[in-house]
Amino acid sequence: MAVTDWRKSVVYQIYPKSFKDTTGNGQGDINGIIEKLDYLKTLGVDYLWLTPVYRSPMNDNGYDISDYYEINPDFGTKEDFKRLLDEAHARGIKIMSDIVINHTSTEHNWFVESRKSKDNPYRDYYIWKDGKDGQPPTNWESKFGGNAWQLDPVTNQYYLRLFDVTQADLNWENEKLRNEIYDMINYWIDFGMDGFRFDVINLISKAEYKDSDKIGKEFYTDGPRVHEFLNEMNRNTFGDKEGFMTVGEMSSTTLEHCINYTREDRHELSSVFNFHHLKVDYKDGEKWTKMPFDFIELKRILFEWQVGISKGGGWNAIFWCNHDQPRVVSRFGDDSTEERRVKSAKMLAITLHFLQGTPYIYQGEEIGMTNLYLDDISQYRDIESTNAYQIMSENGFTNDAILDILQDKSRDNSRSPVQWDDSENAGFTTDTPWIDVAKNYKQINVKQALADKNSVFYTYQKLIALRHNLDIITYGEVKPLLEEHPQIFAYERKLDDKSILVLANFTDEPVDVPSSIDIEGSILINNGTYHSNVLEPYQAISILR
Ligand code: TEU
């Protein structure tokens, strides 16, 4: 069904390289997405977000764009992309594409020109600075390791790169550059896109270039002109397109900024991803550590944003996973046995899909795909993981200790090929896949999930249909419950005289529901056997009254 208000929609994220290969080169492609549109229609999602498919040397799998106007031949052609849009639209599915405009690949023609000389017309498209006494201009750290400035021998100046050395940060202070970006966005709107996901968009306005006590993010996160730039972009591009959906990826943003990014009257973006709830298994804020997740903190953060954003009139994007995160069933659920995997994957789905905001489902999540569990560094493909391996080795970590951490935290965990069936390579490709297929594909795959009416897939299908049918899930007020309870995730949604109660047991032990909670009402969804005052291990239930 086509939803009338974009706020009621559910988005499915596709990482094209790992979705479905139709050419037999070991990598997914656009035609592979077309092939699976009927499957996605059966699931019931409204939008597909495709991570970048533009021309790129693929050092960061497409987040290093070398030509915004061309499709990477590994993924197909522009005609293929057009056909994908037409075929998706024919099924009532819309397409959001990824726009990476904080940085480009150093192979982008703008950068090739920019580095040639200090007076090149493209010099100011990027951020160039002199060093300080033979050292980089500031001590900021790159998100992928090392100092964030790269010395370029041609002019003996440094360029800023908050990510990889091959991803140079664009200079948004330059109006000419901004206009080029708006032209490019308009090109893709005219091409037929229905929405955009903006990569690390709250980093585009750099404040000052000074040394930091930490890694420097206070100088470029939610910077001084970011709202002005987003408002300008909105007015010059998608602002007048009714129903056009945008989501900004906002690393380390604040609640207050998020409200301002998404309040309708400010004309910036429709919604925002923030990652605070996905840092609850970082020891002392550090990603490359091993720590059981802090359940109370997870609830605290999610509720703070749920209540805060809606009170402030903004809009959330809600998600457990994406191509940068480990698989949620392995992270906050339990993949130690088949029964627990299925039950906890459904529990996580139920917990998230009654929250307020736009839900995102990451490919494979709907069948409960697990982490990849690679056991040798040579099997890793992600640039962030291989850099981290290098840095941890230099810091004296043993190979085993590093692999143990990567098995929990590497971005490759969610980048393994979608498991379509139990044939060789999980039906993803006829060649050697670019990254290993998870070993459990014979048990966990789409074919199996579709054939089993009790599979995780049908829980997702039902949750999507419920959101489409019940306004309260979209518009209802959120009321957190049992915030300090060590096992139960509980909340209520309220609209007019109706309410929905959601209860989820995040542990492998049964748990009594405190007597303050009234569990009467009709069941909307239940992954367990009973509707009683005792929740079974990993049981989640939603009750309407
Ligand atoms: O990610 C930005 C980002 O900050 C992360 O989620 C990052 O991957 C994480 O901090 C690593 O620990 C976006 C893209 O989603 C990611 O795939 C790109 O690598 C990155 O931007 C650079 O474009």
TrEMBL record:
Domain Glycosyl hydrolase family 13 catalytic intervals: 13-415
Highest rank taxon of the organism: Bacteria
GO biological process: trehalose catabolic process
Enzyme Commission numbers on file: 3.2.1.93
GO CC annotation: cytoplasm
Keyword list, A-Z: Glycosidase, Hydrolase
A single GO molecular function term of this UniProt record: alpha,alpha-phosphotrehalase activity
SMART domains in the record: Aamy
Signal peptide, first to last residue: none
One Pfam family of this chain: Alpha-amylase
Family, similarity comment: Belongs to the glycosyl hydrolase 13 family.
Protein name listed in UniProt: Alpha,alpha-phosphotrehalase
Organism of origin: Macrococcoides bohemicum
